[in-house]
């Protein structure tokens, strides 16, 4: 029996068929018209959206509001609970850098962070010594959407670059702030990727510019006080399949230009001794070979999968001749030990690795070669490696948490091996870890692989199949979903839910091969793994099929669309946030922001009939049929450049037309935000409260 009662009729949407023939195969799309012809301009000015499209999106929002009207009180209660678990006036532990230590803080009621600094050895608890550099709430005043990209200071600590996006389209404006007077200079840099790297003299910096397809394709050198139009082009990447980033070294010796797609990378270096020189190529890009660099004085340490080091190794090369022919192995490749990132300091080399799905921090004395590790004993946990802002240090910073243990921040002396607890995440409304259970179980996949699933539930939850379950999945780009502390999901767990994360193929949870087995022609493994996780949870009586609500966002939203088509009977409801569901149409359109860089992940259906057929076989939008779909809600952002608003819009329209007796199918479009939803910390909680209210409603637990 449906929990959605007395619904009005859903919005009518016109069918305007458009046919497309590729590789001798013709497809017809009834809803292609929902993509605005002027989408590139609309991302910067939403007022120019086609009135017919706007009217339809608003009608869908009205229909969604009617369907969720009975959850208003529940949403408020959930929001209050989640807000109550957040320390409103929270503050970071400042990171030491030269004469200062830099940190960020929130004020009670504030949505945006405030960036500050204190004297290097000042007490972080002494608010009277804080020098407020940037007040995010002040800058956001009067704006429907506002997201800061942070603030980066010069080597002499006199100026800072800060950036903001006030539309949700991820085009950032950069400003330069005098850190003594707190006044911004006249410089205004538009359409950037959101940050910059200072030259050591503090008179200029480097940044990336976003092109009309939202790709950071050019690196510019900006001289403080000059107009953006006079900035010098340092490097342009003309291959539309590659992105660029720009960064700096702790020693201020080099500017790094990082060029990459999802499986290939290339670095170019610019010595800060000659800012006008041409960037030096380190190792020419080779398909499938990745590498990243960090400086270690007279050598570079390079993390790479070259020479079939599938789970990565670390090599070193002289700073003067860093080419691949001079790479010497330092940390060898070890199958099943995935090295995730690395850092170098004056006396130590540090890296974060993952074994059997669990992270470990490794430290090597650069002189003696002696190694030791930082690890924890819980069944499932998360580690974050922050490192340090200075090269000449023996102290690094890391964070630890688990599904039951609030986040803890430590300073760690790599020489003495002394661990200093700096901060434990406060839960103002109270939290007793002993009231909860976290577990790591393994579901058997269709091909015999073991899929890790992390669980959180209250100790008093009955595991007899009666508990509702929120099953979350992502499974793409090699991204691993950490088993860390999440105060928000406690609102579900405290209502008797089992909260589960399926660590499916497409991520790197079990090494690089786990990623390879969930991409390109093997993409369907991702979807089957998720269904296997649901099967296992039912088999072991953690829940039952009629009580599982599946959730995923972005590429995880594609997962939601795929499993809805493949096994609709195994889910009570589906939450698809900014879902990438129109995969084939998007991968066929090389004018879209992310299409060319995505081909190594999904395939290029323009050039290859075989890859066309892979994608066509699972693309959620293309495989909608008349089936007993469960209730589905899609969440969208009008200015989202990553998953454009028309993908979930078309999907919901097609679901409703093709399976009119199933669902219901709801669409919620945020008309003033993009991929990440609302930007304020409490505004974001409102969105999570909405999603959880939907899950509780669909599970019949209101």
Would you mind describing this structure in some detail?
This is S9 family peptidase. Residues 1-22 are annotated as: Disordered. It is globular, with a radius of gyration of 25 Å. Helix content is 19%, strand content 33%. The chain is of the alpha+beta class. The two termini are 15 Å apart.
Please describe the structure with a list of short key phrases separated by commas or semicolons.
702 residues, eight-stranded mixed beta sheet, 19% helix, alpha+beta
Write a concise synopsis of the structure shown.
The chain is α+β, with helices and mostly antiparallel strands and 702 residues long. The protein is 19% helix and 33% strand. α3 (72-84) packs across α13 and α7 crosses α8.
Question: What is the fold's blueprint, element by element?
Answer:
Blueprint: E1 18-22, E2 25-29, H1 39-42, H2 51-67, H3 72-84, E3 95-97, E4 100-105, E5 114-119, E6 131-135, H4 136-140, E7 147-153, E8 159-165, E9 172-178, E10 183-198, E11 204-210, E12 216-223, E13 232-236, E14 243-248, E15 254-260, E16 265-271, E17 280-281, E18 291-295, E19 299-304, E20 313-318, E21 328-331, E22 337-344, E23 348-355, E24 358-365, E25 371-374, E26 382-387, E27 395-401, E28 408-413, E29 419-424, E30 436-444, E31 450-458, E32 469-473, H5 490-493, E33 498-502, H6 512-516, H7 524-539, E34 548-553, H8 555-566, E35 573-577, H9 583-587, H10 595-602, H11 609-618, E36 632-637, H12 646-658, E37 665-670, H13 681-698
Helix pairs in contact: 3-13, 7-8
Protein name: S9 family peptidase
Domain Peptidase S9 prolyl oligopeptidase catalytic: 485-700
Region (Disordered): 1-22
């Amino acid at each position: 029996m449906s929990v959605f009662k007395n619904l009005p009729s859903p919005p009518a949407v016109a069918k305007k068929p458009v046919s497309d023939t590729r590789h001798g195969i013709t497809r017809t799309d009834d809803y292609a018209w929902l993509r605005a012809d002027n989408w590139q301009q609309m991302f910067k000015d939403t007022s120019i959206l086609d009135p017919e499209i706007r009217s339809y999106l608003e009608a869908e929002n009205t229909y969604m509001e009617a369907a969720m009207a009975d959850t208003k009180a529940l949403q408020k209660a959930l929001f209050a609970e989640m807000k109550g678990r957040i320390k409103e006036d929270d503050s970071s532990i400042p990171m030491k850098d030269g004469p200062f230590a830099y940190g960020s803080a929130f004020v009670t009621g504030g949505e945006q962070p405030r960036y500050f600094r204190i004297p290097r050895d000042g007490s972080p608890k002494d608010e009277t010594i804080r020098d407020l550099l940037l007040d995010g709430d002040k800058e956001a005043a009067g704006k429907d959407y506002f997201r800061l990209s942070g603030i980066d200071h010069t080597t002499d600590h006199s100026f800072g670059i800060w950036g903001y996006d006030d539309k949700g389209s991820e085009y950032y404006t950069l400003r330069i702030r005098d850190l003594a007077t707190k006044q911004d200079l006249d410089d205004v840099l538009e359409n950037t990727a959101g940050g910059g790297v200072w030259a050591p003299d503090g008179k200029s910096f480097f940044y990336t510019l976003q092109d009309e397809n939202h790709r950071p394709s050019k690196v510019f050198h900006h001289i403080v006080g000059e107009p953006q139009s006079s900035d010098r082009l340092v490097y342009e990447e003309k291959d539309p399949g590659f992105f660029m980033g720009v960064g700096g070294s702790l020693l201020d010796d080099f500017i790094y230009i990082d060029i990459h797609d999802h499986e290939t990378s290339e670095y170019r270096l610019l010595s800060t001794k000659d800012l006008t020189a041409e960037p030096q190529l380190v190792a020419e890009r080779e398909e499938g070979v990745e590498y990243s660099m960090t400086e270690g004085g007279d050598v570079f340490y390079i993390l790479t999968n070259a020479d079939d080091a599938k789970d990565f190794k670390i090599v070193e090369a002289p700073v003067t001749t860093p080419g691949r022919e001079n790479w010497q192995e330092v940390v060898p490749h070890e199958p099943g030990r995935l090295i995730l990132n690395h850092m170098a300091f004056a006396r130590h080399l540090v890296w974060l690795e993952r074994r059997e799905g669990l992270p470990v921090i490794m430290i090597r004395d650069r002189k003696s070669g002696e190694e030791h590790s930082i690890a924890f004993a819980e069944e499932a946990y998360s580690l974050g490696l922050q490192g340090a802002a200075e090269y000449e240090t023996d102290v690094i910073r890391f964070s630890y948490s688990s599904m039951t243990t609030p986040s803890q921040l430590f300073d760690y002396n790599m020489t003495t091996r002394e661990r200093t607890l700096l901060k434990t995440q406060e839960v103002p409304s109270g939290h007793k870890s002993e009231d909860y259970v976290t577990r790591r179980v393994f579901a058997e996949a269709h091909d015999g692989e073991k899929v890790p699933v992390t669980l959180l539930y209250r100790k008093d939850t009955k595991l007899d199949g009666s508990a509702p379950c929120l099953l979350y999945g992502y499974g793409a780009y090699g991204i691993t979903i950490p088993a860390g502390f999440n105060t928000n999901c406690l609102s579900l767990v405290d209502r008797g839910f089992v909260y589960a994360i399926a660590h499916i193929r497409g991520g790197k949870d079990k090494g690089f091969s786990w990623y390879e087995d969930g991409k390109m022609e093997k993409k369907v493994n991702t979807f089957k793994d998720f269904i296997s996780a649901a099967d296992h949870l039912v088999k072991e009586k953690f829940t039952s099929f009629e009580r599982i609500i599946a959730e995923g966002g972005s590429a995880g939203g594609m997962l939601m669309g795929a499993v809805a088509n493949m096994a609709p009977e195994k889910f009570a409801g589906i939450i698809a946030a900014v879902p990438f569901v129109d995969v084939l149409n998007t991968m066929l359109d090389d004018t879209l922001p992310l299409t060319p860089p995505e081909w190594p992940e999904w395939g290029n259906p323009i050039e290859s009939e075989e890859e066309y057929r892979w994608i066509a076989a699972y693309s959620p939008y293309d495989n909608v049929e008349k089936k007993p779909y469960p209730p589905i809600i899609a969440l969208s952002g009008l200015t989202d450049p990553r998953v454009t608003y028309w993908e979930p819009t078309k999907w919901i329209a097609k679901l409703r037309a093709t399976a009119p007796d199933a669902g219901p199918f709801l669409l919620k479009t945020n008309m003033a935000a993009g991929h990440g939803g609302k930007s304020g910390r409490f505004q974001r909680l409102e969105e999570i409260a909405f999603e959880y209210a939907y899950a509780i409603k669909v599970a019949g637990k209101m």
